[in-house]
Amino acid sequence: MFIKSIAFENYRNLKTDIIFPAKGINVIYGDNAQGKTNLLECIWLFTGGRSFRGSRENELVAFDKKYAKISLCFNSDGRDQGIEITISGGKRGAVLNDVPKKFMSQIIGSFCAVVFSPNHLTLIKNGPEERRNFIDTALCQIKPSYAVLLSRYKRALNERNSLLKDIPKHRELEDMLDVWDERIAEEGIKISAERRKYVKLLSQPAMGFYDGISSGKEKLSIEYRSVIQDSSEADAAEIKNSIISALEARRADDIICGYTTVGVHRDDLSVKINDREARKFGSQGQQRSAVLALKLAEAYVIGKQKGETPVVLLDDVLSELDSTRQNYLLNKLEGMQVFITCCEKIDDTENKMRIENGEIFSVEE
Ligand SMILES: Nc1ncnc2c1ncn2[C@@H]1O[C@H](COP(=O)(O)OP(=O)(O)OP(=O)(O)O)[C@@H](O)[C@H]1O
Ligand SMILES: [Mg+2]
User: Fold this and answer.
1) Least CB-packed of 100, 308, 354, 355 within 10 Å?
2) Is residue 18 scored above 80 in pLDDT?
3) What is the pTM of this model?
4) Which residue ranges form the domains of the chain, and what is each CATH number?
5) In this structure, what are the phi and psi dihedrals at residue 116, rounded to the nearest 5 degrees?
6) Ligand 1 atom at minimal distance to the Cα of residue 34
């Protein structure tokens, strides 16, 4: 999948224009506060997702303007396609291939992208929730039925948790927990199996990208850590019984806490560099390299599953990386359309754009 053109009108500080990026690596450089992240954010919106900066809709419209309009022409499924997004009155509307869509969610899946921004370093630095989300978001893109499974699990968990809170006052409700234990076990087993399968697919390419970024000097390894056993190592009934027993064993504690302390909602993705936890022992550059390798591997796996590689957006990725690591990103990512922003002009790359005060200039050399 690749972008042929992006047009914008009244989007943040970007001057009304249309740009035609190259199929391979595109470097966008400029001083601070010139609009580099704004451009990547604008591209990201065509995935149907919300701003990766967590901004509200009306913050995307240029100051003193009433609306913003952005359009994308991209090639996917062997044909040119178009998306137009209009933002006004705090709302977003989309038109996909000339067909107006009522909800933004209806365009999800047509244009696919993977984004890295400095905010995403929390993927390594923070607790397990972000790592579970990283796995879940990719799985939802690859397999829409996974989103249904996940929401069924969350509903069962919420029901169990509200019951746990009521039990101290109404002890007779305790018997009802059995139903939810069973549901949490059944859905949890499916979620754990899907996540484990996906992490296995991700592992090899993540290792490969990290090996490239670190020029073979360091090794990245990832592993899914679940409360539920691997189904290849035990039979289905045995697995179900063990998770139900675990829920029962924690029941008294759960009633005191008022929430469920065991289940796939507490699973984690272990990320190690040279066999040590990246979160605890990784340097800034190593953590950045690990997040990057995970994001690139995500793009690779989605590409394999869907038959097309998503567009890769790398915001401010080069800082903290030494020149060998930078060189890999600028020259070795083949078969993907990549947008990289940075402050300095980089000489040995082919497709460059300079951005100044929201105005984009293509740089010929
Ligand atoms: N709605 C808006 N209307 C007009 N300008 C805006 C709007 N929102 C943000 N800006 C301006 O856009 C400018 C550029 O922002 P952006 O984050 O894209 O910069 P950047 O080039 O990525 O800088 P850095 O290198 O510091 O990350 C900021 O100065 C900000 O004030
Ligand atoms: Mg920026």
Assistant:
1) 100
2) yes
3) 0.89
4) 2-112+308-363 (3.40.50.300), 124-278 (1.20.1050.90)
5) -120, 125
6) 21
